[in-house]
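fold-stage: in
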Amino acid sequence: MCGIFFSLSRHGYVAPTPSTEALLRNRGPDSIGKHEVLIHPQAHATFLSTVLSLRGTNLVKQPLKDVATQSILCWNGEAWKIGTEPVQGNDAQLIFDLLLKSSSGGEGQKEASIERVVDVVSTIRGPFAFVFFDAPKSHLYYGRDCLGRRSLLLKSIANGDFILSSVCDNDTEDQWSELDADGLYVLDLKFGSPQPLEAMHIPSRRRDDDTVGSVHFPLCFPFINKSLPGDLCRRDPRDSQRLLDSLRQSLDLRIQHVREAIDRPNQGDARVAILFSGGLDCTVLTRICHDLLPLTEGVDLLNVAFQNPRIHANLEPGVSPFELCPDRVTGRSSYTELLRVCPGRPWRFVAIDVPYSETTAHRQRVITLMHPHNTEMDLSISFALYFASRGSGFVQQNADVTPELYSTSAHVLLSGLGADELFGGYQRHATAFSRRGHAGLVDELELDFDRLGKRNLGRDDRVISDSGKEVRFPFLDEDVIALALELPVWAKCDFENEHLPDSDDPEQYLEPAKKILRLVAWEVGMKGVAGEKKRAIQFGARTAKMETGKTKGTQVLE
């Protein structure tokens, strides 16, 4: 995981402000590098990268620069696969080599060269944001993966300067925006011009989109399956096994060989931690991790709870506000079930307690990190992610000992984000079904997935990465997504049939939302978790509406 910064100016080299550079260093504490390039008398380019080394046995410093061509790459991503082939070790140099090869060619091959670069980037399976300068052709490529799993902010200044950065300090009046995760962008820097730069946009296109048009960025997953059930709606019992197999493959890529170039952990230390509310999504991931990691390797479960003065103002003496938080209650329950189903591993339940005074002390920093997102709901969610990702709390090995202060050694965090959007976990999905049946449910799921890249993932990346950790989203693996989109809607959730809480049959006992994922949890022995209700992070951790119950989540921060 890296922090990347690029600037292009007609007035001289533009470096990040000291506060922005500090934020970039937080993302990548292992190395920092900078290249300044005079492309022509009117184009001063600055490339800067910080690196958190997570893959491979050697630290690969950035920006990467090719001596022969003078081309440069700033890469903030994880290429889990190139096409169908898994990537072993560090991916940055491999991506750079592929881009250099694809961009080669004569002067008269501009469009062909662009198409080859686009083809290379479209084969990358995993999250990314990047800036690639093809020096021989003076082409600058930049973009984010189609889901927006890595942050990239854009600032266009009135004097014509152009700046890209993973994160910003938000100290100036300049307007930052989140770069759309809707394809790739190309700037032709061959000729100087006093006019504002105009980027060529190469839009993304689903694999089953047969629209005829110019060059595009092909995606590896289809449109959502819109088929509707007939009179008899039967679930295929093999679907939940297919999902389990797909999640295993996704996790296997994301939790093996972590940070081998830097850390030499002691036995029992954790390389991987889970953002752990105890809910269905994160606990299923945790349970599958148990099958993939050596039994001696620890796994940390990061459970955050907040003191909320609006709710906890009149507690009895000695009553902990943190232990009353719904996610703490659910987290401890799921942790107990994990200990029973998966014995022998050094599981650590890390209770991260955040007093209200600490929340207010970090408020401005969190607002800076989540910028340009700026609503009360953004802040509530960002608080939970910010404090959870720091990984500092209390661990209690058993009920007979005093809890001890503990900070996780893990630099990779797993998140269950994406499961609700893919498998119908929100209340609005049930509402859509009640109003318009399966057709309305399909439309709501399609809307949720289509706006993933425009909503919160960039914000979450900025907030979490400030702790020098990388968040990974196994449910947003391209193959898991393809499976979810291909399945008919009644295979994913089951709002049509009556929920029978007293039944011994999981098909009838389990709640309809995310039914397929509940069946996965049931099949791997986590039957208590399989029956858990969905709860939004800001309500489960008690970060919502701390000052007043009248505040709306959509309200813009003052």
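fold-stage: in (second)
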Amino acid sequence: MRGLPVPDPGTPPTRTSTGYLWWLVRVQASTVVAAIMFGVVWSLAQALMPAAIGKAIDLGVTARDTGALVLWTGALLALGVLQAYAGIMRHRNACQNWLGSAYRTMQLTVRQATRLGATLPKRMATGEVVSVGMSDVAHIGDTVDILGRGAGAVVGIVTVATIMLTTSLQLGLVVVLGVPLLTLAVTLLIRPLHKRQAAYRAEQGGLTTRAADIVTGLRVLRGVGGEAAFAARYRAESQRLRAAGVRVAKVDSLLEATQVLLPGVFVALVTWLGARLTVAGDITPGQLVAFYGYAVFLMMPLRTLTEAVNKITRGHVAAGRVLGLLRLTPELADPAVPATVRDPGAAELVDPESGLVVAPGRVTAVAAARPEEATAIADRLGRYRDSDAALDGVPLRQLTRASVRDLILVADNDARLFSGRLRDELAPRGADDERIAAALDAASARDIVDALPDGLDAQVAERGREFSGGQQQRLRLSRALLADPPILVLVEPTSAVDAHTEARIAARLAKARAGRTTVVCTTSPLVLDRADRVAFVDGGRVVAEGTHRELLDRVPRYAATVTRGEDG
């Protein structure tokens, strides 16, 4: 079997769900064709077994011909061996098709989520994204997986119908007419099932979003006494989801019962008619046994066909959900002809909207009268929102977003620690222990690692929940320093630590970033005092520049902002 996932999932069509599913079939055509071929052989071998049994009875047992009995028994054994081999190969290729379709779809959704960045949470709820990754990819895999068995079921039905028509026109017509009617009867239940599944899917996505919000904000909810209110809302929504699930289950159970009842009645009818024809002498006892075998055999391909209709319908709905994500476009588009920056480490970074000019190779602090003003500047400098910000005279909008991310790293307090080994979390691109130790020292985070039983090899839980807020902030700062970008923008990097730790970080930051451009958005006097230059922002504009002490002496509004006092 080929390795999964594939290096490049490709670029699918996004106009229709049918087009996307057909694209999945095309990109793994070899295994899909193999699954269909082995499915056909598997079904044919099983369909011909009743004929071999009938011949053994008529030519061997009834005629008392040992040679014929051995011949047809051997044919039955050969069919069994062929069916076993074809079944193994069909299942193997079907599994490859399921995994290939599911993994490829997951790769596409993850790639799209990465491409969208901050646009994704604005356009699609968290629960909806989780549902796409958890359930929709499985339904899409089921759609491609069923093709092998579905094709085999069609060929099996056609083969049996042909044999029965040539043996007995009456029984053959029963099969030829009965199979489409049974399939139609079951198909009528698919449409209401599809509608109820879509409603259930919407409720499920909403509830998942609610759960994610509650878990994320649980500490805040407890602090403001809102835990009970949100728990009550979650209970109410979960009951609506349960009711939607019951509605789905009602139709689904009716569908399952129909898939058992109708083929059973059909088998009974075929057997009754065959017995009457045998008594009348129109068919032989061996043919009667064969007809019974055909009728029993037909239960399986009939059930497979209804299963195929059900899975393809679900896959069609799931593909629509996936395409809803794939059709989203980033708020910030890459230019048709990207520009380049010759030496970003020696280039000025300018934000015309605020008037901020960041000198290369120095630590520039931005102190804003209102925190949101500093955050807006950081977003423009990192091109998380469109603006006229420029690097070395080149507008950032003329660079690709990937280039901007390589040149400018914005590290704020919305960043998260991910689960996994701490070493890999701090240096995802790899770094030796000496570099990691230096970054930990600069962020005053060495004590955090030393307290862990496994040190850098300790496993970090989801969102780093085993660490306090201040510990997470210091570890995130270590990660940003290890990334070592040409330009680093830090937003309130010491807001959650005590004064002694803050003083150590402020004293070590400039050394850790020597020769690199660093912007620190903060109102901490300890950090501001260590900056090469401070820009004071009020009303969204830089209104004063200088060292921290110079601004304290000549700008009362700045002094009031950084000392938490009131200006006169």
